[in-house]
């Protein structure tokens, strides 16, 4: 690694650090009973942990390195585009365009070979076609739902989200594999038992 | 996956979520110029990104799935043991004992097969002998140093850390590979240029 490449990598890591300041709607329970909004960087760590726990629980063989690599980069465009709330139709309508522009900025900040490699991982995640991309999508959506359950449905309540609103997002995640169906079914049961997600 | 296993995994993920409330001494720059302490979950995400960027930059072949898996679990014991500041000798003296006890609680919360698998990854990281463990150690220590550079050395200044204090921790990271030597050398230069780390 030459000096210029080292400086470029450090500059990129300084940019990537901003993912820690992108706030999601889901909330993190704090000691003492309050909550705060989750940020996208810690969300990505939870996805990695879920992927590590589940990659041998599913029927299709998962290339764990590829799944974890996709997970590490899948939200980097939010540094420029911000987080898009799944239950905000206006924001979702412009999401693809905003994120494509952001990808040029974020992945363009890397040396070209690394930028192309990380961009390809992000595109694979977005396309949602490979076994690893579908697996990562299932982990991503399960995690968002889980975070709401962990925080007594506060994120849902703030935005008036009802059970039916979650189905277009969660049904594809349940369909990834029977293990996802089981886990997400159990999360819906916890949400119902806790009165977090009205019918 | 049967119902009991699903419930056990969800309970574990609820426990693991607490890593987002474990604060490190390094600080995250915020929009507007202030900073806040970094938490261990977002630290783990940054390590994953660093590992993804560097695994092909080093001479030894790295099994990326194993490195990223180790990175995802390496700080889980902090849920019970708390973060141990690298420049606090009293805390470091009791760290191994506290973390071994914590490992029993944290990995013991998983179904036995998964608990054993995650514990083995943590133990491999702690032993620091495999190529992937040494690579992950290098990423971990580089990230801690980087976080201080990103926040104008605030964490160091608060605790009176000088350049020589960092060497027992950073010299083994520099020795992992010439790429680490290059990157960490560049970080020391940035710290020196910014007056962040007195001689």
How would you explain this protein's 3D organization?
- Chains A, B: One of its GO terms (cellular component) is cytoplasm.
- Chains A, B: It comes from Roseicella aquatilis.
- Chains A, B: Residues 16-165 form the HD domain.
- Chains A, B: GO terms for molecular function: 5'-deoxynucleotidase activity; metal ion binding.
- The structure is a homodimer of 199-residue chains.
- The first copy, chain A, has helices at residues 3-16, 40-54, 64-73, 78-81, 89-108, 112-127, 131-150, 154-158, 163-174, 178-193; strands at 23-29, 35-39.
- The first copy, chain A, is mostly helical and 199 residues long.
- Chain A has one domain (3-193): Hypothetical protein af1432 (Orthogonal Bundle).
- In chain A, strands 1-2 form a two-stranded antiparallel ribbon.
- Chains A and B meet through helix 1, helix 2, helix 3, helix 7 and helix 10 of A and helix 1, helix 2, helix 3, helix 7 and helix 10 of B.
* Share of helical residues of chain A: 55-70%
The main sheet of chain A comes to: 2 strands, antiparallel
Number of helices of chain A: 10
SSE ordering of chain A: HEEHHHHHHHHH
Radius of gyration of chain A, in Å, reads 17 Å
Tell me what the CATH architecture of chain A is: Orthogonal Bundle
Portion of residues in beta strands of chain A equals 5-15%
Q: How far is the first residue's CA from the last residue's CA of chain A?
A: 57 Å
Strands of the widest sheet of chain A, in order across it, are: 1-2
The low-confidence runs of chain A, each spanning 5 or more residues with pLDDT under 50, are none
CATH superfamily of chain A: Hypothetical protein af1432
* Derived structural class of chain A: mainly alpha
The counted number of beta strands of chain A is: 2
In the CATH hierarchy, the third-tier topology of chain A is known as: Hypothetical protein af1432
Give the integer mean of the pLDDT values of chain A: 96
Oligomer: homodimer
Domain HD (chains A, B): 16-165
Protein name (chains A, B): HD domain-containing protein
InterPro entries (chains A, B): HD_domain, YfbR/HDDC2
Keywords (chains A, B): Hydrolase, Metal-binding
